[in-house]
Specification:
2 domains, 23 strands, Thrombin, subunit H, six-stranded antiparallel β-sheet, seven-stranded antiparallel β-sheet, Pdz3 Domain, elongated, mainly beta, 5 helices
Amino acid sequence: MELSDHLADIAARVGPSVVAIHGRLRMPSSGVIWRHGVVVTAAHTIRREDGIEVTLTDGRTVAAVLAGLDPGTDVAVLKVDGVELAPVAPGDARSLKPGHLALAVARTDALGISTDFGVIGSAAGPWRTWRGGYIDAFVRLDGGLRPGFSGAALVDMRGQVVGICTSALMRGAGIVIPDTTVERVAEELLAKGRVSRGYLGFGTQQVSLPGAWVNKMNLSFSSGLLISSLAPAGPAEQAGVLIGDVLIELDGKACRDIDDLHAALGSASIGQQLPIALIRGGERHACVVTVGERPQRNSCR
């Protein structure tokens, strides 16, 4: 009974800072009042740029403006002006451990909040999503998310919001976007409407390197990235990269898989000239590529 009352108290305290977001057809998603006038949610639930509305704790539905979204981390930021909104008290998702109890607090309509109680299934250090976004901690919930719970607040047993929930970053699993990630991405989206990442303009596929190549080139690793496609007039094509080349180094560091590639292409890399090493026809080949900025695809359509 004591745990039950504690959970109900947490839901009552966090609930006023959780809103319903009408940014797609049919079921709304949830969102969290992160700052005064600023709401964060899961980017994949925003399917249009105009006509977005937010339902508040008192049942009112008000207009919201999309400040920006980042598919890489699945964070979207909305601005709601002229309404007094109480921000959440942030915690630290990096303190979570497998087995810790947590409460997801959502709002999917005007009737009130919904909750889902469970445990942290696994927790680890920083990681990169399949879209290249940097997430400060890996936190997986023990199970998937119920409809409408993407964008919900995840609350620890101290009543602090440690992040927002999403179903888009790992198939079949509920993932937490940590508070530190939300804060960092929200800051950039509010400042310029997008998150900048480096762009080379090629598609890749991880491949194993023949032992003869590894020995011949004295490599300490045995995999690389096969260049499978090139963007016309993109940075890689302009640098002389060819389809069929195998990328093994970028800026002097091993490029064994897509994570190595993403790690080298942060916003600071844009505009830099980086040396790259390739294997072409069984021989080592070097060139220099000027990193561009990844095109901003319209994910609201």
